[in-house]
## 1
Amino acid sequence: MPETRDIMIQTEMLMTTTLEKARKDPESMKAKILAVARKIFGEYGFHGTTMRMIAHEVGIDISTLHYHWGEKKDLYEAAIIDINNDLREKFIETEKVIHGRPLEERMAIGIDMLTDYLFLHPEISNLVLYRYFGKIRHEELADLKVPEFTIDSVRSMGLKQDKEHIQFSMVAVLTIMNSIHSFISGESFFRTMIRLDRGEYIDLVKRAIKRIFIPSFTQDGGMIE
């Protein structure tokens, strides 16, 4: 329906503008609300989070929250797009560091950098996994706005991109990323199982992921171009 689509486009433009303002001024109320929303949505998911929970954590009343961000779905979509922007920036930073190095080095450095970054921002992994495996009423809107970085990762790692191998290479990259996300989201559970402090746990996760996956990419007949 044309009218419905027009409303959706207007809402998206308004939300994007609000997000841009929040990112440009990290000390603003919009930015403070967004930071809290990312963490709470990451911990409880879309359905488990209420606007009152976010408002209480920020220390504002509910009307102030609605004034800055509108409805819950708008704030949720902004949180998803915000983590997407952060991930894009981190991938660009990582690509600059690994560019031109041998594949094994590219993978080792990339895994270290991304894992360290995501452990510093666990809400990113939580929100990514919620988005993959959870169901929200407005997920079709969020999905339209959140491109994946699988192809970019395949290119930067120098993996096979011909028609025969591209899907396999993409799944291989997703396997690594989802492994990292799972170890981050399940940290409290996994650390209890293996009885490590946080620093030891992070180091072990990075070593295990590199030991398991790097040989699959670098051995003879692997996925190198």
Note: The CA atoms of residues 126 and 185 lie 6 Å apart.
## 2
Amino acid sequence: MSLQGLDMFQKNIQKNIWENRRIGITGASGTLGKELSKAFRSKGSYVVGLTHRETPHRAQQSNETPNKWVQWNCGKEKELETILTSLDLLVLNHGINPGGNLNTEGLNKALEINALSYWRLIEIFEKISLAKGENHSIKELWVNTSEAEIQPAFSPSYEISKRLIGQMVSFKYSSLTKDQRKNFIVKKLILGPFRSKLNPIGIMKPSLVADKIITNSSKSSKTIIVTPNPITYILMPITEYLRELYFNFFKVRNK
């Protein structure tokens, strides 16, 4: 088989994986959210865009936008429970970046949006995923913690919030039993700098990042890393391994 033929074969496999699956994306009106929506829809998925902004008018929708828009606000995650129940995959991608400002207000806002609202959605989706029932199916969660989880992002509040949710997701994964992990698949998105409103000087194209995320999602690893920085590919697995050892120590001790 030629290289071109192999590439087409891999793309067809990817399309079959995501066809007719229901995908929910928070931050769907942002740069990466838009590109993920476009990429998933091109593979036959039904995309629900979750946004804090006013939902776009139907006339503004196209094959490159979510099939359905849902407006929500941090602190009201419980209102999304019905929507979350219908999803096969939830991508937590919303967030803010206060920049280099050193003030309590910016930090509180970053913690609420980038970490605490994520955690509330994770808890709700976990409960749904592990519930027993006739229509029970395997559900998947992707959490965008970004490269800022382990490296500087020149934004202290952003870094603190991302490191917090990064550790919380590691904690959640470690707390699951082997059987629970079969029904509730948890992955982190560790992304390098891509061009967006939050980062206008990012060096990666958001469309490329979205495609790489989906392509690499088929791997068994619990991290999906997309970055030009080779150090991240070394540091992130080591960080996750050490965290797992740490959390497993307490699991064994508490038995």
Note: The chain has eight helices and seven strands.
## 3
Amino acid sequence: MTANERLAGELLALAVAAAREAGELIARYAAEGFAVGTKSTATDMVTEADRAAEALLIERLLGARPGDGFVGEEGTLETGSSGVRWVVDPLDGTTNFIYGIPAYAVSVAAEAEGEAVAGVVHDVAHGLTYAAAAGRGATCNGRPVRVRAGASLSTALVATGFAYDAARRGEQAAVLTRVLPRVRDIRRMGSAALDLAHVACGVLDGYYEYRLNAWDIAAGGLLVREAGGLTGGFGGYGFGDGYVVAAGPGIFDALTTVVETAYRETARA
């Protein structure tokens, strides 16, 4: 085992433990109640659970590795000096959480020198922990998972999502009207991290969305790649820019082409 592989394994073990503990905290808030506020828009909500989970993750991750960097959705930013950075969404799917819809997750990724090497998406409501380390494959609760094979684009079940800003949602809806006729159907779960985890384990054939943040996709993107899938971008942007296409190899190119065409046609309209 190389030093990099050993590091990835150590980071993954820490991420799994921290994500599960944060999930337990979130579950307690779900049972006992929580206060709700807003951030960028009236529809961009944040809860006590989001902030408490991020604080717990900072304590666990940087407590174990004080030289690491950290960026979290709720505003934490630590530069670090070790070459490792944690990219964290403490509660992806906050709207679902508030409404009691069981589709929200803790997303924790570790980057080494800018590349994701460990990633965890913990599905809180269902107790499912999706995990991956670079070069080691992807698992769900310790069992290996793979992307779905054999689908054609016309029979593919594809997920997407929408922004909090109303104008951006309108634009994304216009893109969707051009994608929908080309696939079997569309699902909108409300959690980018879970959408990517579901591609990794074959529940979905593919996923696309754009204008996402690093904490939405860092862990899930690694899951897809380690499960045998592909990730990329469109519209002149890359995956790391938050313009996301993820799918199994059999439909990745076709899905990217359809999304690219829909995006450009919408921009011209």
Note: The two ends are 53 Å apart (CA to CA).
## 4
Amino acid sequence: MRGKDSGVEKERKPWWLYLNLLGLDAPLIAVIWLFLFAQTWRVDYHPWQAYAALGFAVWTFRIAMKLLQGSMSSDDFSFPMVHRKSLKVAAVITGFSAIILTVMNFPLSVYPYLLVGAVFVAGHFALTLFSSREENEIGYAKHAMGGVAFAFGTALTAHVYLPSLGLRELILSREFICFAVLCLLASSAMELWERTGKPASDGEAGSMDEIALSLPLTLLGAAALIFAVQDDLMTARPFYYGILTGAALLQVLNRTRGRFGLETLRVLTVLCLLAPGIIFKSYPLGG
């Protein structure tokens, strides 16, 4: 009986949830922030194929993660399981499209970046598969690797068009580190909210998880503000203002999450990352 009810419930999803259900949220976030990376680093030549390749690649991995998580779930009526055949076809098409665009349009220097990115992605998949399934334990290592992989893939698509710089400069850049931290905090926040529900803490473990989210968000926002103020040429200020805004929005959402259901929280979490990129991508640059 519960299975039938679950199946009916899955068919009645409101239209605004399909951005998340279809995995289109991650590609949109990546493409918007790619523009910010390119703008911040003053990339002179940045073809549209770079944005298309990134969007297709991220969507492929997003679909793969949804199918992996769906296969690990006992809910056969979840969206990924009900539509797994269509999602697999979409993943193959977008994956090949990303490969073709990369081979035909990117400089040869992209391949060392891709090798490092592949290690991050493989690590995220491995941690997702083998991470602890304890009910009250948050998979911080999994989220950290996922945030680094997502941020690295987004940033490299701009950084590879800066021939005078290499992998070391990308990995040590403040912009990459700040965006990776923002992504991993957004990811871990969603798992925390799924496990603990309303903001009222359930014992010491719940309190520690709350601190593990609120404190890094506060520190990230403070660091972004400091980096923005230190940027005398104002070329990086839009980026850091975006980081600051995203951290602030996640902090507000964490405090008010008891008003929303989990599906709404997923969409709002996406908006916390998407809105700052849209707002600050047209911010006037100095210099």
Note: The CA atoms of residues 30 and 117 lie 14 Å apart.
